[in-house]
Fold this protein.
Amino acid sequence: MTARLLEVRGIQKRFGGVHALKGVDFDLAAGEVHVLLGENGAGKSTLMGVLSGAFLPDAGTITLDGNLLNLTSPRDAHAAGIVMIPQELDLVPGLDIAGNLFLGNEITRHGVLAGAAMRRKAQDLLARAGVSLDASLPVASLRMGERQLVAIAKALSAQARILIMDEPTAALSAVEADHLFTVVKELSERGVGIVYISHRLEEVTRIGHRVTVMRDGAVVGTTTPDAPQATLVQMLVGRPFSDLFPPRAQRIGAPILQLEHAAFDPDIPRLGWQVPVDISLTVHAGEIVGLAGLMGVGRTELLSTLYGFGISGKWRGRVDVRGKPTLLGSIAAAREAGIALVTDDRRGTGLILSQTVAQNAVMSTLKRVTPFGLVSRALERRQVTRAINDYDVRPRSPDAQVVNLSGGNQQKVVFAKELMNDPGLLLLDEPTRGVDVGAKAEIYRRLRSLAESGLGVLVASSELPELIGLCDRIIVMHAGRTIHEFGPNPSEEAVRRISEGEGLAA
Ligand SMILES: Nc1ncnc2c1ncn2[C@@H]1O[C@H](COP(=O)(O)OP(=O)(O)OP(=O)(O)O)[C@@H](O)[C@H]1O
Ligand SMILES: [Mg+2]
């Protein structure tokens, strides 16, 4: 880990009026895992976009093994052995896994696509990445975490010397993340240099050799992974930082959602979906309830079916909203019952990228801003400006195109949009995916204050420290069932043990 593999000097990049990179220096040794931290919008993805040939820098140099690199396209970067797994995955949902792995590199025999050969090789690649998925599954049927693993398998196929991973664990559960770390360690031992972008500070010590913090388009500093978290956080947010999590609920109100041995019968079964089979849980007003469990146990499906999203069918068993039996199963019914959902796939379901922040934010509230059947521009503007301030969306412009916002800022827009309807029950699936520590603290604080004013929250997260720090109770799921309930502040170890199936009949 001595030779400088990559050296980046004085990189500048502007997007119109945004000065995204202000003279950035960065380097990477062979076999090194260099963690890159920074607030949302700090410029991390942009810097990596420059390194992987996606963006041309306005100034600065990149050298590889001491030789100047001139990257004008991702193809150039690939040829130099630089491979990036982007933050927003660029898989094609309509193709199967094998098709995605070989996109642009299709195997042909006598000019004909060799489907069987590709699937065999794809299965190999998946196995090397430790993924047990059938290569002939369409990517559209995979959950976010599985898609991430496929993207990693795809990158492994490219024989990278430098691998750039932009928030790879954001959608992974603890077990999948552990697995990913093993893959990262193996690659590093083979001499691959890895740039690892993350908002999860605990990952710095787990896999990093060095850590660099960016803020506002510049490097704040580089340090060793054993630096105290408080130091890292201070470098990140540029000020001393106290508590990530607000105090827990003082007063719990009446039940908002009560499920007792409830199950969901889909009209048409959906491939790869673990529908709710036997769910018993209660969410009271004023309370934040967490859903834990491994990937695939049906947390996303529970939230989606309560909201009538992505699948149609009927709930049976006891389903009460505010003490009254309620028919859920369609979005209209959920909205009527005052339920809102923030999904884990902000690109697929949450946002229309080609539209502005303002257009996206008011999408779910059109009724409210149109008292006379007309969109009141002035009212809309006031609401959106308030939401942008409340959620600290940057840049603070209602007219920014969502596609140009950094990942974390897109997530804040999703939030603002769902909460504009004043729901009574908020369903959240991986709500802080890709959100920086400062903004996370802000979201937690807002959720708590909304809860204090009577909102009930049911939140699924694969980040256990988040569930434990935020929630009043945690419910563990397995195979479409609720199997255990924890009170406030359980140990991470205990939640993990139950999630991983201890005590379950084989
Ligand atoms: N194509 C673009 N057009 C205009 N502005 C852009 C574009 N891409 C990025 N930006 C802006 O550049 C700045 C840096 O964004 P970048 O995506 O690099 O942040 P990031 O550090 O990766 O943040 P996150 O943690 O949220 O992913 C942001 O202000 C962003 O809005
Ligand atoms: Mg980014």
